[in-house]
Write a structure and sequence with these properties.
It is a single chain. The protein contains 12 helices and 10 strands. It has 400 residues and is α+β, with helices and mostly antiparallel strands. The protein has 3 domains: 250 residues, Lambda Exonuclease, Chain A, CATH 3.90.320; 43 residues; 84 residues, no CATH class. Helix 4 runs antiparallel to helix 5 and helix 11 packs antiparallel against helix 12. The longest helix has 42 residues.
């Protein structure tokens, strides 16, 4: 059994999408091709981190890492930190952006320039909204971890704000093109972040937000219900079990078009030239045999039906051939629909005897002489018998 690292949302999502890609990334540590939109997202997040961090007002944190701590008496505030500092000016914010900018992964100088201009514009608009609403951040880009009922999980949370009621709001920045309220309601990432914050902070989580930076739209939703979190825990458990068992089979899909590992993935890896001729013959042979199999199955079915018709007409169950004797056999099965008499079975205390629904249990009750004959009759009338005929072969007696 493999040791399973703590699951982040990214690693969990990667495994769900393709277990083999998870192995390439998290076990084999294979690098991915740099992409401009990834670089853009990292620079924006890092810039906002530098902007918000001086404004953080630390909040109460859990003592130690024990999952058994539940009461306010078992919590204590973080060690006193520096008082919130002065907010950057817009020019200072844009200077941080220019300092952190990287051109890694862009398709062309024009592509880079377009993204760089987009970043400056969304930062200006973010600054205006932040100044206008002056949120109270208690944490920025904080790494949180816990064991969620046996599953180690962790994550870096973009921002945690104090709500007007004194609780906490989890904020996750998104630089993607489109985002909707449904994305916020269905986000497994926000659900996992809620668990991480609840297990690490004294105050309750009162809201979850996907902050769409391109439109400056905070998509706010209430904290998840226990049922939603329980469902996520089941899915995380499946991923955890799969990793522990070394289940890393590829899962082909639309994601394959952007995967960097197609050249080594069994789904797309090419056959070596020296083996092509030999394997081509095997594939052709397999194709021929599969075609013959379908044809033979159809022929076998038609022949068996002709034998059945002849056996019915002649009233025989044994038909002699040159080398073998065909023996007509049957499978008999009973099915019962007990719902119409369920009240009667409950009333007489017999329901438990047929609770399994298995035909043999019902037939046993029907044959039980200690049960009222009228009840047995009613149970029997709910049954239907199906008969399936088939043919066996035995070697013919050469001396007969």
């Amino acid at each position: 059994m493999a040791a399973v690292p703590a699951l982040s949302y990214s690693s969990y999502h990667t495994y769900l999408e393709c277990p083999l890609r998870w192995k390439y990334l998290y076990v084999d540590r294979l690098p991915e091709t740099p992409r401009g939109y990834f670089s853009f997202g990292r620079v924006i997040h890092s810039t906002l981190e530098e902007f918000v961090r001086p404004l953080v007002v630390p909040s109460a944190r859990r003592v130690g890492g024990s999952e058994s701590q539940r009461t306010l008496d078992e919590w204590e505030p973080s060690r006193p930190g520096p008082s919130p500092g002065a907010r950057m000016s817009l020019d200072e914010l844009l200077a941080v952006y220019d300092r952190l900018w990287t051109g890694e992964g862009y398709l062309s100088p024009e592509d880079e320039a377009r993204y760089r201009g987009l970043g400056r514009e969304l930062l200006r608009r973010f600054y205006d909204r932040f100044v206008r609403e002056h949120p109270v951040p208690v944490s920025v880009e904080e790494h949180l971890e816990t064991r969620w009922d046996g599953i180690p999980v962790h994550g870096y949370i973009d921002r945690i704000d104090r709500t007007p009621k004194g609780g906490l709001e989890v904020v996750d920045y998104k630089t993607s093109r489109d985002l909707s309220d449904e994305d916020a309601r269905e986000s497994d990432q926000l659900s996992l972040y809620q668990i991480l914050v609840e297990r690490n902070y004294a105050e309750p989580v009162e809201g979850l937000t996907l902050y769409h930076l391109r439109s400056q739209t905070p998509l706010r939703v209430p904290p998840r219900d226990p049922e939603v979190l329980a469902s996520l825990h089941v899915r995380l458990g499946s991923v955890f079990d799969g990793i522990q068992a070394g289940a890393f089979e590829p899962t082909p899909g639309r994601q394959c078009a952007r995967c960097d590992f197609r050249a080594i993935c069994p789904e797309f890896k090419s056959v070596p030239p020296l083996d092509e001729a030999r394997l081509r013959l095997l594939v052709d042979r397999f194709e021929t045999l599969r075609s013959d199999e379908h044809r033979l199955n159809e022929d076998l079915k038609r022949t068996a039906e002709e034998l059945h018709r002849a056996a019915e007409e002649l009233g025989v169950h044994r038909i002699r051939g040159t080398r073998s004797v065909a023996l007509r056999r049957r499978d008999e099965a009973w099915q019962y629909s007990l719902d119409p008499i369920r009240p009667l079975l409950d009333e007489t205390g017999l329901a438990e005897r047929v609770a399994s629904g298995k035909p043999e249990d019902v037939r046993r009750l029907v044959r039980d002489a200690t049960v009222d004959p009228e009840i047995r009759r009613k149970v029997s009338e709910t049954g239907a018998r199906t008969v399936t005929w088939f043919w066996d072969l035995e070697e013919a007696d050469r001396g007969g």
